[in-house]
């Protein structure tokens, strides 16, 4: 059976629904520190679980005969700057608990998300390579870089089958993101529909790697399905789809909502965004498991406006 930790989060919610659709509701156990959307709660087993509580996690793994864990719980970049030690403890403590369960053969496969936040301002801005200079100066980026190194260590030393991708900023409509620097790319669609005005917390020309959630979920499942002998990266795979800035998204929305206005008021998140690359080279993912994105900005905007206007299955 499969356990999703952090199932109420922006990725966790959609990953849970996609895995339930694929493997059957009863085989995919959702867990989080708090209850989630009706769709999530009504479609299969749910456990309240603090990802930093080793014994509680071990109990859920044993009770539900879990053999695969998707660890999606983390404190994201903006919030982590406000609570550095809480972020470090959550992001790292939960990872060690899951890696050690795998080392003890209590589970046999792990997915753990990394992020483009592992790159820093000394990384090349365009086409950040799979293996390169990585000097993140955010708590979140430091925790993700350290986490990647531990994943590679547990693979090399203990043969743990842990797989990971460096997600770009994710654009989705089912679940709001929480505390990220790329959250503007979700908020902007909500505000465009709600009152045709948005105050963006990043400068209009802040270009960042972005991806529509359907692509991110598919990439995750493709990586987890892949024959392990094809996988050459055991830290975390670069993953790329689009490279967008607020001004581009705003003008794309204005094609559908003519009088939509955006004002730009950069805040502390601008410094975080400026430390990240504008685009990513994901050659290794394309080479190892045939990764190919399907959503560009046009298609993303159409999906977002259509679903946010008439939320079918929230
Ligand atoms: C954040 N959405 O903004 C996350 C992500 C690349 C950004 O890691 O913190």
Automatic annotation (TrEMBL):
Domain NAD-dependent epimerase/dehydratase positions: 2-225
SUPFAM superfamilies: NAD(P)-binding Rossmann-fold domains (SSF51735)
Any GO BP annotation: L-threonine catabolic process
Family the UniProt entry places it in: Belongs to the NAD(P)-dependent epimerase/dehydratase family.
Domain of life according to the entry: Bacteria
Name of the protein this chain belongs to: NAD-dependent epimerase/dehydratase family protein
Annotated InterPro entries: Epimerase_deHydtase, NAD(P)-bd_dom_sf, NAD(P)_epim/dehydratase
Source organism: Cerina litoralis
UniProt lineage: Bacteria, Pseudomonadati, Bacteroidota, Flavobacteriia, Flavobacteriales
Single GO MF annotation: L-threonine 3-dehydrogenase activity
